[in-house]
Amino acid sequence: MGTTPLDKSRLSSLFGEAVLVLPEAFNILEQYYGNVQVSPNCTIEPHLKEVSTRRGLCFIAGLVNCDGHPYSEAVLIDGDDRKVLTRKRLCDGSRCYEVFMQPCDQIILHRGLRIGALICMDAAVGDNAAAIAEQQRRHGALLQEFAQWTETKLLCVPARFGSSEPVGKSESAKQRGTMKQSWQIEPSYPIRRS
Fold first, then answer.
1. Closest alpha carbon to 67 in 46, 52, 81, 85
2. pLDDT single digits (tens) 161-188
3. Residue 122 has what DSSP assignment?
4. Which neighbouring-strand residues pair with 77?
5. For the domain 17-176, what is the CATH superfamily, name and number?
6. Rounded CA separation 189/194 (Å)
7. Nearest-CA neighbor of 28 among 75, 76, 96, 104?
8. Which of 93, 97, 115, 165 could form a disulfide with 72 if both were Cys (CB 3.0 to 4.6 A apart)?
9. Residue 37 CB coordination number (10 Å)
């Protein structure tokens, strides 16, 4: 059986249609759950912009802000276009970012898609009554806004997994009694899908 040669022109044309979602805190190159606060690598975002411009790619990147407060953000990068879609509002115990306390979710039209984002555990339900109520309100508002649009919808969830061991950290936090339960991906309240 022979192999099919790679059609580089077809591959290249797909770049102009691609939206790539990169993990949360993509510009944190050190241990995410360390005992000391680490600073973001501020060369990552300009590099993503350069790759986006050169290849025609659109990124939704989870980045820790380098200008001012170190908020964890979901940022759309598409050539010269840069838009913050959301900031992380829940704390996962990392010292790499500050929690953003204001409403900040945006759904934008880009490349013919309605794009919104939640960062990692912001897409989860919460672990106490107050957090559950807030997450229901926040998720409900996003779903209502998505429902009013006819374009294809894309909800991006940049999340940090892998060497950071978030499940292991949440399990050890549960054992210490500093976390009531590990966060869940599936919400425990009904979501109406249109």
1. 46
2. 654 444 444 444 444 443 333 333 333 3
3. G
4. 59, 82
5. Carbon-nitrogen hydrolase (3.60.110.10)
6. 16
7. 96
8. 97
9. 10
Helix (H) or strand (E) holding 8: helix 8-15
Domain boundaries, the chain: 17-176
Residues 94/33, Cβ–Cβ less than 8 Å = yes
**Exposed, middle or buried, 71 (CB in 10 Å: 0-12/13-18/19+)?**
buried
CB 91 within 8 A of CB 70: no
Strand pairing report for 81-87 and 72-78: antiparallel
| Low-confidence winner among 36-50, 58-72, 120-134, 154-168 (lowest mean pLDDT) | 154-168
Whole-angstrom Cα distance, residue 169 to residue 63?
21
Q: How far is CA 152 from CA 51, 116, 130, in A?
A: 25, 11, 32
What residue type is assigned to position 91 of the chain?
C
pLDDT tier for residue 3 given thresholds of 50, 70 and 90: low
Let me know the angle formed at the C-alpha of 143 by 126 and 167, rounded to the nearest 5 degrees.
30
Instruction: Return the structure tokens found at 117.
Output: 């984002």
CB-count burial class (<10 Å; 0-12, 13-18, 19+) for 46? exposed
Tokens matching residue 94: 């990392």
